[in-house]
Write a structure and sequence with these properties.
The structure is a homodimer of 329-residue chains. Chain A has 329 residues and is of the alpha/beta class. In chain A, 32% of the residues lie in helices and 25% in strands. At the A-B interface, helix 1, helix 6, helix 7, strand 11 and strand 14 of A face helix 1, helix 6, helix 7, strand 11 and strand 14 of B.
């Protein structure tokens, strides 16, 4: 395992320092406890959106802090849940008096710690639990489905709703709606290596792929022989479309997400294959996003996410966003 | 070698199709001959900026086509120069009557083919040759220094100048100025694998790094034992600052560029180390960019680029840009 790091214990601190410095116009970074928030903190009267989770999935979540998306993010150690004190401190910094919406990927540690934070928080809060991964029903770190790249779609769309002034109940309901309309599946060509472990999280043969892999290297649906992208993507799309009960005629957001170690050249090819699967089902790809957004360190592989869009969701997706990782409008 | 591709011969066509479809609001993609241009083509009276080179460095160059940056890009096969007929066809599509500026990375094949295109073009043209790589004086595919990530800085700053109406001579002179003010150096932790070759371009031991590697895996200054990022980055910064004759007091743009397979977590740590080297020399990091912009397929590693900024260059860097890979202002 070779990584551009210094001491294993300092990776997160040093990386977040760099992140804060590089994006000083957008974010503030606090080191103890660790949180990242919008520059200047929260806005009075606005629902505060806070997410977080283990590090190693960058730009998720800190890269999505900024106008039109998250108010704060709480990074845990690599693949390790953040703690309630981080979440509480972040909430104090960004609470604008209209309540806090926690956006939580469905992993046992995250769920437990965000629940504790919600209990300890004096003000009102609600939680959106994301579980868009259609690959498996429960997994190493989760009861029920895992939350993966669809979380970004939730953060973007609900972020825009909070920005225009939707209240806490409306933001929470919208988050549930977007999560339910979203399905994802990933594939791994290689494992990732957690810095503190110093070795690959799992073994995968030179001729094998893991279909339905989790973003921490958790097992997927099956291990199979490497084959052309067309077949791999077709199977992922079939799993997603079946889960979402796609009937044709839908407008969808198509997100092709790199796991961190796969070049854009391949991600755009995966995207092209995914659009073929949409066309074959009579689905219209109304919005697209291609890149490394919810990663697994240096894992090679990709995931595909579909979100069935309605007019409101589409308009909120298009709304302006100013973060380190997404910037438009 | 595992890649998310179908037949090796179809990689580029299929990937570009996906790219064009995902960014249909920004670009047009032509397949034969291959070029990518701004949606709607060139603008009357504006200098047309055209770049290109081998594929495998995505998002370079097609990801930088759009308002405020390139008018067109000509992608060759992976790590292979595009041909003059691509460049001529692109020029015909985007020429606005104010001349064409070719932005060419200094590799023998690119230089030769862009020269041929310039000779064949009926209208006026000029060339900016980028050679920002301070690692070696000449290399496998180049006489003189290689052009690497500094090319992006040239494309952004000259792109903004062309957008505001600077003429061909002014754009060419500005490009020379930015290139001369820029220095880069890279490090590889792993090799890349060209799809058609099917195996790693070079061998690198588990405990080794290649200091000063080229973006096609060309040899650098030396191969050395893996060590903490602090020392690696300090040596890269020393090489760059010495080449740029930094004396202290300068404002710089600091670009930390991933080679394609290194996670953002590490790139921000590299950025943090690079800012320390700037602070130690009394240099002010006035602008920053961190991410995968000039890649070498799935190579693990990073490069650092410094550009000494003056007020005009800073303002042009800040000017609005709307491309697949850069979007701000």
């Amino acid at each position: 395992m070779k990584k551009l790091i210094n001491a294993v214990d300092d990776v997160l601190t040093e990386s977040l320092r760099g992140f804060g410095r590089a994006h000083a116009g957008i974010v503030e970074v606090n080191e103890d406890p660790r949180w990242v928030c919008r520059k200047g903190g929260g806005r009075q009267g606005k629902v505060a959106l806070i997410s977080g989770g283990g590090s190693g999935h960058e730009p998720l979540h800190a890269g999505f802090v900024g106008t039109g998306m998250l108010d704060a993010a709480c990074p845990g150690q690599v693949f390790t849940s953040p703690t309630p004190d981080q979440m509480l401190a972040a909430a104090e910094r960004v609470d604008g008096g209209a309540g806090v919406l926690w956006i939580v990927k469905n992993y046992a540690g995250d769920v437990m710690n965000f629940e504790l934070a919600a209990e300890m928080l004096e003000g009102e809060s609600a939680t959106v639990l994301t579980n868009d991964d259609v690959a498996v029903e429960s997994s190493t770190h989760s009861q029920g489905r895992r939350g993966v790249a669809g979380t970004i779609v939730v953060e973007k769309i609900v972020g825009a709703a909070a920005e225009r002034g939707d209240d806490l109940a409306a933001c929470a309901a919208l988050g549930e709606r977007v999560n339910k309309a979203s399905g994802s599946m990933g594939v791994a060509l290689t494992s990732c290596s957690v810095p503190a472990a110093g070795k690959p999280t799992f073994e995968l043969g030179e001729g094998e792929v893991e279909m339905g892999v989790g973003i921490h290297g958790e097992p997927g649906r099956r291990r199979e022989a490497m084959r052309p992208a067309a077949g791999i993507v077709a199977d992922m799309m079939e799993a997603i479309c079946s889960d979402l009960e796609v009937t044709g005629g839908e407008d969808v957001l198509l997100l092709v997400n790199g796991m961190g170690g796969t070049p854009l050249l391949e991600l755009y090819l995966v995207y092209e294959e995914a659009t073929k699967a949409c066309a074959a089902r009579g689905i219209t790809v109304a919005r697209s996003l291609v890149g490394n957004y919810c990663t697994s360190l240096e894992m090679q592989g990709a995931s595909v996410t579909l979100t069935k869009l309605d007019a409101e969701m589409t308009a909120l997706w298009d709304a302006p966003v100013r973060t380190a990782a997404l910037n438009w409008g």
